[in-house]
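Title: Prediction job returns without error message
Component: structure pipeline
Severity: low
Priority: P3
Assignee: unassigned

Description:
Job completed but the reporter wants confirmation the result is attached to the right record. Sequence as submitted:
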Amino acid sequence: MARALRWLAPFLLVAGVSAILLTPVCGALHRCGCRSLWAGGESHCNARVAGGEHCPWCEHRALGALAAALIVGGQLGVYWIGRRRFGPAAAAAAALVALAPLGVGVGALLWLPTDYPHFLATGARSSLSLPDGPIRCVGGPPHTH
């Protein structure tokens, strides 16, 4: 038990930090207004405004939950691979650094099937001449979750 906790504890710290950072990552990826938890978190998200464009992760909680699971799962993979070769501390650092590329990759993968226009840049969908996906994020009532 103590051995398992010794290798698991650093990753639990990474997962906790990542959970705190996922909301501002959402804001950076989707240009939706999500901020750090101490700056209002999701309260500034465009999903809280009637009509218009609604952030995919906040409009569709399943997409947000899937994004979180894939990102933290990818970080677990980075940690798992690195912990034996480099030790738990270095593996945890690598897993934390992996948040950025995993966030962009997972974010892009889950953005493509939506009709949301922004990803990393305002109007990215039209700039890239990508068609709207079947998952609707434009229009509709505001969300209060």
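Comment from assignee: result matches the submitted record. The helical segments are 2-30, 56-59, 61-86, 88-97, 99-111, 124-127.
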